[in-house]
Amino acid sequence: MSQIANPLFKKIMAEVKESVNEGNSLAYALSSHPRIFSNIYVNMVRAGEASGSLDVVLDRLADLGEREQALRGRFKAALAYPVFMFFIGTIVLFFLITFIVPSITQIFREMHHTLPIPTVALISISNFLKSFWWLILLAGAAAIVAIRQFKNTPRGRYVWDELKLRIPVLGPINNKMAVARFGRTLGSLLKAGVPLISALQIVRNIVNNVIIADVIDNTVEEIQAGKSLASPLAQSRWFPSIVVQMISVGEQSGELEAMLSKIAETYDRDVESQIMAMTSMLEPVMILVMGLIVGFIVVSILLPIFEMNQMIR
Description:
By secondary structure, the chain is mainly α. Helix content is 83%, strand content 0%. The protein has helices at residues 7-21, 26-31, 39-51, 54-110, 117-151, 154-166, 170-191, 196-204, 210-224, 230-234, 241-253, 256-312.
């Protein structure tokens, strides 16, 4: 613990050490600090203790954490500018519609002349935002709290995890990340000599998706009934056919561990390239959307002016 620089984390590790010295398991000691050690982390440590492969599990957790931290860092770096542009653009547009537009459209309303539909819509939006901006913030905060509470229920977790796999664009990425985790962890455990059933039970706790976890549970039951690993996975839509075929070839050739590692490497590269491509597209899409909004405001203001010019002529 002398290498730990953070005082709070150093204190937590001292408490974990004291709990273990009192005879508690490492998983129990870690579970007392849920803000630091997630359920996935604790469940993997618990499974590693039960199967006698704690050293392998800890090594796998370290490797997984490093990979995810690196990917998260690249993703945040790519997303920093679009997010900054989004917030600045949103603030500018809100200020423009709420405070600038009313002073301009006030002239049109005083003329008691029938206004074009875009202008009427702009005035209505401006009045709503000026009067009920606090209601929008309150509704957004309430929605976030409600979603979080729903996610903490068993039904909510199931619905949320299914949504993560089915949602357009992000769904395939989440699916590939789960498959990559499955392949990398299972391959490492098998290579370390952990039995297949025990390894699958450990992997179940790291995929971070109850849908995939149910598939793994079914796979364990099928293997115990005498079937191969590839056979029950082929029945799930969340494991692509190419993955199932590679696992089948690995089982037949005796190179299952190497094949699983190859699956993980391939899908890791695919996920990273897709995330980078997606973030690179955010900036032009945001510029286009903001351009359309500004264009709508400009057109809504200019239309009454054009109509007044025609009336003068």
